[in-house]
Amino acid sequence: MNRNTKINALLLLVVAALAVLPLALGLGDHKEEPFTGADAEAETAITELQPDYEPWFSPLYEPPSGEIESALFALQAALGAGVLAYYFGLRRGRRQGAARAEEAGAADTDTDADAATATATATATATADNEGGSGGGSAGGPGA
Questions:
Q1: Burial label, 102 (beta-carbon count in 10 A; 0-12, 13-18, 19+)
Q2: Which of 22, 60, 106, 108 has the least CB density, counted as fewest CB within 10 Å?
Q3: pLDDT at 121
Q4: By three-state DSSP, how is residue 133 classified?
C-alpha cells in the first residue's frame, strides 16, 4: 500500500468514527430530539430565557417536514461540494497545463537549436559547393 492509500484509509476511518461514535455513546439520549440543528437549539434556548420573545424575521419557505428540510440541506451541501471540486480541479488542470506547456517550450527550444544548427551546416555545405566553381555537381544534378 502506498502512502496516499494509507492516508485515505485513515481519513475514511476518522469520518466513520465521527458519524458512529455519537450514536454509540448515546450523546443525545437526554434530549427529546437528540440530534437537532443549531437553529432549533438556539430557538429552544431563547424561548427558555425570554418566553415573550418574538423573532424579527420569518422564513421565506418552511418545508412541510423535517425529512424534506434535511434533503434540501443535503442538496445544498452537495452543490457546494460540487462547486468547490470544480474550482480546485480547474486550478489543478491549469497548473498541469502550464507545466506541460513549459516542458514543451523547453523541448521546442532544444529542437529549434538542433534545427538551426542543421540548417546552418546545410547552408555552409551548399555555399562551399557553389564557390568551388563548375564541376561541383553530379551527373544529372543541378550542376550538369
A1: exposed
A2: 60
A3: 66
A4: coil
Report DSSP state, residue 10. Answer: H
Residue with cell 546552418: 120
Note down pLDDT in tens along the chain; length 144 residues. 899 999 999 999 999 999 888 888 877 666 676 667 777 788 888 989 998 988 888 888 888 888 898 899 999 999 999 999 999 999 999 999 999 999 888 876 666 566 666 666 666 565 555 555 555 555 555 554
Report the alpha-carbon distance of residue 22 to residue 8 in Å, rounded.
22
Q: Is the dihedral of CA 114, 120, 124, 129 positive or negative?
A: positive
Residue with cell 437526554: 30
Dist. CA 132–CA 82, nearest whole Å: 73
Cα separation, 140 vs 105, in Å, equals 43
Give the per-residue SS3 of 83-128: HHHHHHHHHHHHHHHHHHHHHHHHHHHHHHHHHHHHHHHHHHHHHH
- 95 vs 86: CA distance, rounded Å: 14
C-beta separation of 28 from 35 below 8 A? yes
Max Cα separation, the chain?
A: 116
